[in-house]
Amino acid sequence: MTRRRRAAVLGSPIAHSLSPVLHRAAYDALGLDNWSYDRFEVGEVGLPGFFETLRDDPSWAGLSLTMPLKRAVIPLLDEITDTAAAVEAVNTVVLGDDGRCTGDNTDIPGMIAALRERGVEKVESAAILGAGATASSAVAALSLICTGPVTAYVRSETRAAEMRGWAERLAVDVRIDEWARADRALRAPLVIATTPAGATDELTAAVPAGAGTLFDVLYEPWPTPLAAAWEKHDGAVIGGLDLLVHQAVLQVELMTGRSPAPLAAMRAAGNAALGGSNGDAAGSSPSPSSS
To answer: How far is 42 from 4, CA to CA, in rounded Å?
Structure first.
């Protein structure tokens, strides 16, 4: 009898998560009929109890974690990878046959893969809009592809201090500027927008002609006003679905041990779930409806 394997995404709120769509599409494409992937509404208070049930059930293979659990999970793990430790954020937990839980971060290599897919392998400078959890992954990704300074535009000194800490650990030349001057970010060859929906809408009028590359980590609704304005100025745009798919590809490979994961099938499933609003496969010509 084939052994049942389970995986799931945890977070709060979680109903909006596309992770089940992406992972199930991967299982279908890989012929993993014994695998299931679910979502569970779990906050920081309930996380330790959830982990107690995991260790007693050998069918569990892994977890995807979203906010607010990426940092809260760390004390519950047996070990974390250097990648996750660098930004103090875990978005992936792999459960071994011995019950050991290992934390990893696929947002960082997923971001690099999404950029590389669009031809962005090295940049001389970059800008980050925001300083939340995704911004830490952006700093880590830029540590590997940016040869010059990174300017982060933030709203508070607390966020600025966190950004400085990540920069020091990752040996990245990060310069902090205030959000009131965020329009200056748009002149960078690569701009990574990590803010919540609506936060960058005020910047649309400042998008320059001949804009560089915008990586907007949001995927719904799409396009964001900033992404739409960027494309109108002939700039290249990478969307949040690209990031979501690439980090999920790595999660599937870590949890199932099967490689390569079916990128095209996962992207198609995610795009279909969003009603086609994220456009065609990566590499297509930019248009107001594509990423």
So the answer is: 23
Taking a C-beta distance cutoff of 8 angstroms, is the pair 226, 202 a contact?
A: no
CB 19 within 8 A of CB 91: no
User: Helix, strand, or coil here: 118?
Assistant: coil
- pLDDT tens-digit readout, 257-279: 999 999 999 999 999 999 876 65
pLDDT higher than threshold 80 for residue 282 = no
Q: Looking at the whole model, is its pTM more than 0.85?
A: yes
Structure confidence by residue, pLDDT tens digits, 57-102:
999 999 999 989 999 999 999 999 999 998 889 999 999 988 899 9
The kind and range of the H/E element at 93 are strand 92-95
Q: Is 290 helix (H, G, I), strand (E, B) or coil?
A: coil
Active site residue 122: no
Q: Which of 5, 70, 246, 267 is catalytic?
A: 70
Which of 30, 29, 40 is closest to 7 using CA atoms?
A: 40
User: What CA–CA distance (Å, rounded) separates 235 from 54?
Assistant: 46
Q: What are phi and psi of 76, to 5 degrees?
A: -90, -5
**In Å, how far from its chain's centre is CA 241?**
9
Specify the 3-state DSSP secondary structure of 6.
strand
Q: Which of 137, 131, 135, 143 is nearest to 168 (CA)?
A: 143
What pLDDT score was predicted for residue 278?
A: 66
Q: How far is CA 11 from CA 26, 111, 167, 289, in A?
A: 21, 21, 27, 29
d(CA 99, CA 110): 26
Q: How far is it, in rounded angstroms, from Cα 35 to Cα 123?
A: 40
Give the chain's radius of gyration (CA, Å): 19
What is the tens place of the pLDDT at every residue in 36-46? 999 999 999 99
